[in-house]
Amino acid sequence: MDHIAAHNQSSKVAMPPTKLGNTTPNTLHQRMSEIVPNRLSDIRIIRTKYGKGNLGNVTVDMAYGGMRGIVGLIWEVSLLDPEKGITLRTHSLPELLPRLPRGRRGSEPMPEGMLWLLLTGEVPTKEEALGLSAELAKRGVVEPWIEDVLDQCPKTLHPMTQLSYAVNACQHSSKFAKAYASGVPKDTYWQYYFEDCLDLIAKLPLIAARIYRNVTRAEGAPPVGRGLSVDVSLDWSGNFARMMGFESDEFDDMLRLFLTIHCDHEGGNVSAHTCHVVSSALADPYLSFAACMNGLAGPLHGLANQECLLFIVKMREELGDNASNDQVEAYVRAIIKSGQVIPGYGHAVLRKTDPRYTCQKEWAEMHLPDDPLLKLVGQLFEVVPRVLAEGGKVKNPWPNVDAASGVLLNHYGLKETNYYTVLFGVSRALGVLSGTLWARICGLPIERPKSLTSEEVVRLFGPEVSPKM
Ligand SMILES: CC(=O)SCCNC(=O)CCNC(=O)[C@H](O)C(C)(C)COP(=O)(O)OP(=O)(O)OC[C@H]1O[C@@H](n2cnc3c(N)ncnc32)[C@H](O)[C@@H]1OP(=O)(O)O
Ligand SMILES: O=C([O-])CC(=O)C(=O)O
């Protein structure tokens, strides 16, 4: 896009950092304030030059088929290639992970670096990532009544329901909702959205750790109560681990990796798209993200990581530790025959092994080579793709991100499978809030695709069928 770069040379206008109330401008905000006008000018040029470009035909099957293959969204922060997997601001995971900054402790990237990249398009320096880490630690405060609400939840309420409940409650402190109600101009919306997004990301470890501590407490023990707080000397992920009660450096690193790689998968997946559509009505980031979490909690989407570990554990109980591949295959066939899916396998867009699976499998092979569940993950990889590919019905027989994550968490003592999707959700906040913030920066309108009834399909294409409904 040389013409765009050239245009930028002549039109570079640095927007002054905006102070909102008592909020001190921060480095990420300053960088975004410089980037936003240039990017908006790029987009104006793109729309002028290519606005009438055709993105493809839509068939009736596509409309009945979950809109698979329809390109109908702009999502600035990531793009999914069916063969190569996710690219985050054009970087593939294997290329990006070694380049993202490490913190003061640990050897895995800080998720803060990923957030910076998603928002700015630039890999941050270590200082920038540490600055963002400190800023998140400062913003990490949850209103006491929301802590009380969580403490009132029955232990048996699914952790994802508790997460959605708490995030909705945090809407009470939305700066965007307040600013919108006061009638601020449209081109300043994103500034308030930015504030809410950072506040929400900062609050999530506190909320999620409280949920973990509450659902894992001993029978009869009191809930967490007041006093859970972030340590400003720790990074976002380190704080999360510590507040959950995990103390090991290796767990911290595993969590950093988990939170970094689960962040985003372009705009059309259920969680990102939900956030996008809810936010397009100018619902604030809290309401949009809570809705997004409800989508992530579905078993065909994020909950598959819970389902996947349960599947592996149950298979181990039935087959023991020395099962042959033939036994694993017979087990898998029986599950498919009973009409259930094999969790962790298949994908709506990917057509090859998910690089996020590979990355977690490599971590596991290095850090927990003798874990008996890891052996089963390997056997499933040898068996399932071949079985699923038979008959040609399943479009992608290869493993997705959820096929290996539970084994890692379980190995380090995080055994509560119904909590796994909360970790996914905390990570997903980085991506969906970045993508959604960029939608507000671009001023994208309320989303409203057209729908049809089956009678209308018949009317459009011919009278030979007449649905009796
Ligand atoms: C973070 C994520 O969201 S990654 C995905 C996590 N989800 C899972 O791992 C659950 C298991 N996988 C699945 O259910 C699917 O592969 C999905 C939901 C991920 C993708 O769904 P689709 O795009 O509809 O897949 P596809 O077009 O290949 O499906 C065709 C058929 O194969 C079946 N199929 C797809 N994957 C599997 C699987 N892992 N096991 C058994 N059957 C499967 C579908 O259920 C569908 O059957 P149907 O025609 O009888 O309804
Ligand atoms: O892309 C999808 O549809 C599902 C997925 O893997 C994700 O959201 O991480």
From TrEMBL:
Record's keyword annotation contains Coiled coil: no
Annotated GO MF terms: acyltransferase activity, acyl groups converted into alkyl on transfer
Cellular component aspect of the GO annotation: mitochondrial matrix
Domain of life per record: Eukaryota
Pfam families: Citrate_synt (PF00285)
Keyword list, A-Z: Transferase
One biological process term in Gene Ontology: carbohydrate metabolic process
Disordered: annotated span: 1-27
Alphabetical list of PANTHER family matching this protein: CITRATE SYNTHASE, CITRATE SYNTHASE, MITOCHONDRIAL
Similarity remark: Belongs to the citrate synthase family.
Protein name per Swiss-Prot or TrEMBL: Citrate synthase
Organism: Gonapodya prolifera (strain JEL478)
